[in-house]
């Protein structure tokens, strides 16, 4: 399907629960929320003026796919992504919202990003170069950029409403939320990463690292927000991975690279992305989704019959 313009705002006539960089979340009945993923894209904590068509659909549908793959061992917050389950007041918006919304249970959020790293990349590589540590924990000497680690490691971060999340030690997290809950979150994160990394490898992808969010519902640990998407994860093509280099990734790194070359000072407002950059970034998101799921994106016609 030929992409239309990017959906940058939803402006739904429901009580607003939260509006983030990408998702607009609204209050529903019975302790439920409506999460809608727009096509907004941010870089260096600035939402850019134009988005990536279908990006929100990729984030939503890949999350739903992963929720279905992992629900047998990790409870999640998803209630429905089916078009008929949209509130009646949004009947006239079904085509616009199809494939990019989730009805979810409201949870008490645990205010830490639960990051799992199987490879040495990104901020972990930067820290390792400077101090030989990752999230404050000593690592083996002589590791290379993008090298696979002996075992996946859990590196939590504070969850910032604005600005950068800050990597912290596991001990810091445990002091904040209690050791039992911290252990539970760590173990759940590692189990999810291990499962997903093995699944991705079978599809020719490397899941270098990812971040999860959890909440509590009736005292139970529940996976919330998105899961294992190109916005929350670093996917590489397995055939293009080589330790000591930076493999191309299926995410917005392409946008960051263009912004760096553009000379932008990383202060708002951000520059408008040229059509070629938008198209290439859209292709990367779609490729990650299709390679992982072996499906095409759902739009209204397909969603009516299959969601």
What does this structure look like?
The protein has 2 domains: about 1-105, Phosphorylase Kinase, domain 1; about 110-250, ATP-grasp fold, B domain (D-amino Acid Aminotransferase, Chain A, domain 1, 2-Layer Sandwich). Strand 14 (about 205-215) and strand 15 (about 220-225) form a beta hairpin. The protein has 8 helices and 16 strands. It has helices at about 55-70, 95, 120-130, 170-175, 180-200, 255-260, 275-295, 300-305, and strands at about 15-20, 25, 30-35, 40-45, 45, 80, 100-105, 110, 110-120, 135, 135-140, 150-155, 155-160, 205-215, 220-225, 235. Helices cover about 30% and strands about 25% of the residues. By secondary structure, it is of the alpha+beta class.
